[in-house]
Design a protein that fits this description.
heterodimer; A: mainly alpha; two-stranded antiparallel ribbon; 77% helix; 2% strand; B: Helix Hairpins; membrane (chain B); Multisubunit sodium/proton antiporter MrpC subunit (chain B); NUOK/Mnh_C1-like (chain B); cell membrane (chain B); CPA3_antiporter_subunitC (chain B)
């Protein structure tokens, strides 16, 4: 028995149920919000440590042996993702205390937050493809509700696009599961991986593979299926945006990594070539979209799309080094992106707008905030010695070694354009003189010191993580390398789940 | 039976996509309902339709016959129906609220968040 595999799912579910029980007490809900996510962070550390020790940590739910019951599997990649979920969940829960209004809290913000975290952790940990679908739906339903809490016009319009495309993606996923079950007659991912090799007609497998690619591509916001993301992510409260930016698309990326290393690895020339071009176009369209925007969170939303391209590039090149780069990139990106969204929230709280043209002079008034913005922003653009530099360096080196010159050039160009966007935000929000105070649309209520500190605390923590990754690149590289080695060895996963086959 | 089901499922998918491509948000939701039903039927059909005994071991402990229906796809479809029900009821409430706030039933008018 290894309870640490199930706990990252059970803790948020319990915390969510508890906060439902204290529906009327906002104080208790806040307390459970912070305590529950802290417990999630603690267990994810425990899981991470035991995966480092054992390689694969496996639990058969209900004691049913592997191909028949639902198996929970944690390998290095899952453990990393769950750890990041814990970090982001805790940071966002602390950040929510001063920023989420009374209206949101009384309509169940905290229970939904826990449910979302449970869905995300479940998707990372399950070893059963249909169960993956169920966790996707848990996560989606929670995210739908979080997205429209507040009920403003922009939220409704964004939500319709978000809901429609994600439901469509789920239906494609479900159809693909059905077809795959028809082909191999099993749902356990390790068992599927074993039996897919025995199917004679490779074309059928390729078709199912492309269906999975489209479905997860929509969820990961890859080109050409990304447009729901910039339409929706800037509408909810900042804490929700930050949570979505950090975790939701990355679940799609994780599913792509899992499925296209473990199950669909027999016609790499076909599937991974599509992924490679998808990755290149995702990077380019994302960064160009961001260049045209003049709203803080919209720029960041388009940058999520662009960064997804880098992660997919790591998967698509499908060499050991490229996978290391891809995993490293996910690791760095989740922390940095969430942090940038949280900072945009503070700027909004201080200045009352997200519009770059109306902002200005933040550095002069709050120099610490400027420094805190520069850390993740420069890291996102890949400036050494911050975390993004190592992630990009590994990926670009891998693409040169693989002889893919086009994607190397695109990746470098996109890095440059990312720097352009970040300097645009820096210049407009922090550096330039504030426009006339009279023209500011509304007077902003003063922020109490205690609230400001509660908002800054998670940002400092996440920035510290970024600097830590940057200064200890080798340590994190080793972790990413271990997970890439596992991803490239599907037989190891199969043996770990099903037991050694004769 | 399978060929008929294949055609039926194809028609449902096609009509669902047609409905989703229309501009009205009500028809969009109808399209979503249809497409999730098509997926359920697909799972049911692809897993193999057997016209034989249910997969239940009799009380006297006799072993199962050679040909029994596969219970797993039915469990999957049941789960998928429940999930689709929850999600679609959310979608219906969402379009109602969206209509109350935006006051149009036309997706082309909902472009505030696009640019």
């Amino acid at each position: 028995m290894s309870p640490e595999v199930a706990l990252p799912i059970l803790i948020p579910l319990t915390a969510g149920a508890l906060s439902m029980a204290f529906w009327r007490s906002r104080m208790m809900q806040r307390l459970i919000g912070v305590a529950g996510t802290a417990a999630l962070l603690a267990t994810s550390l425990w899981l991470f440590a035991s995966v480092q020790e054992q390689g694969h940590v496996i639990m058969n739910a209900g004691g049913w042996a592997a191909p028949f019951g639902i198996t929970l599997v944690a390998d290095h990649l899952s453990a990393i993702m769950v750890l990041l979920t814990g970090i982001i969940g805790f940071a966002v829960a602390v950040y929510s205390l001063p920023t989420i209004g009374r209206g949101h809290e009384t309509f169940g913000y905290y229970p939904l937050l826990h449910l979302l975290l449970a869905g995300v952790a479940g998707a990372f940990l399950t070893g059963d493809i249909f169960n993956l679908y169920v966790w996707f739906e848990v996560m989606l339903l929670a995210s739908f509700a979080l997205l429209i809490l507040g009920g403003e016009r922009a939220q409704m319009e964004g939500a319709i696009k978000y809901v429609t495309l994600n439901l469509l993606s789920s239906v494609i996923f479900l159809s693909a599961i059905g077809l795959l079950y028809g082909l191999v007659g099993t749902l356990n991912m390790a068992d599927i991986a074993r039996r897919v090799a025995l199917v004679e007609d490779n074309t059928l497998i390729d078709i199912v593979a492309v269906m999975f690619m489209i479905s997860f591509g929509i969820k990961a916001a890859a080109f050409p299926l990304f447009f729901w993301l910039p339409a929706a992510y800037h509408t909810p409260p900042v804490a929700v945006s930050a949570l979505f930016a950090g975790l939701l698309t990355k679940v799609g990326v994780y599913a792509l990594f899992r499925v296209f290393t473990l199950i669909f690895n027999q016609s790499v020339d076909f599937t991974h070539e599509i992924l490679l071009w998808g990755a290149a176009l995702t990077m380019l369209t994302g960064v160009l979209g961001a260049a045209a925007q003049f709203e803080f969170r919209r720029i960041l939303s388009f940058h999520i799309v662009s960064q997804i391209g880098y992660m997919l590039m790591g998967l698509a090149l499908f060499t050991p080094l490229a996978l290391v780069g891809g995993v490293f990139y996910i690791l760095h990106h989740i922390i940095v992106k969430t942090n940038l969204f949280l900072i945009s929230g503070i700027v909004y709280r201080l200045k009352g707008t997200h519009d770059l043209k109306k902002l200005g002079g933040v550095y002069k008034a709050w120099p610490l905030l400027g420094v805190l913005f520069l850390i993740p922003a420069l890291s996102l653009a890949g400036v050494p010695p911050l975390s993004g530099f190592f992630a990009k360096f590994v990926l670009i080196r891998a693409s040169i070694e693989a002889g893919e010159i086009t994607i190397t050039v695109i990746a470098l160009l996109v890095g440059l354009l990312t720097l352009y966007s970040m300097t645009k935000i820096w210049a407009e929000v922090f550096w330039k003189k504030a426009p006339d105070e009279d023209s500011a649309a509304k007077r902003v209520a003063p922020v109490s010191q205690r609230h400001l500190w509660l908002m800054i605390l998670p940002i400092v923590g996440l920035a510290a993580c970024t600097v830590f990754i940057g200064l200890n690149g080798q340590l994190l590289y080793d972790v990413a390398e271990a997970s890439a080695a596992q991803l490239l060895d599907p037989q190891g996963y199969i043996d770990a789940v099903l037991g050694e086959q004769p | 039976m399978e060929p008929i089901m294949a055609v039926v499922i194809g028609v449902i998918y096609a009509s669902a996509i047609y409905m989703m491509l229309r501009r009205s948000i009500v028809k969009l939701v109808i399209g979503l309902i249809l497409i999730s039903n098509a997926a359920n039927l697909l799972i049911f059909t692809v897993a193999g339709m057997t016209r034989d005994a249910p997969p239940l071991i009799p009380m006297n402990g006799d072993p199962l016959g050679d040909v029994v229906a596969d219970p797993l796809p039915q469990a999957l479809v049941l789960t998928a129906i429940v999930i689709a029900f929850g999600v679609l009821s959310f979608a219906v409430v969402l379009i109602r609220r969206a209509y109350q706030i935006v006051r149009v039933d036309d997706l082309d008018q909902m472009k505030d968040t696009d640019t």
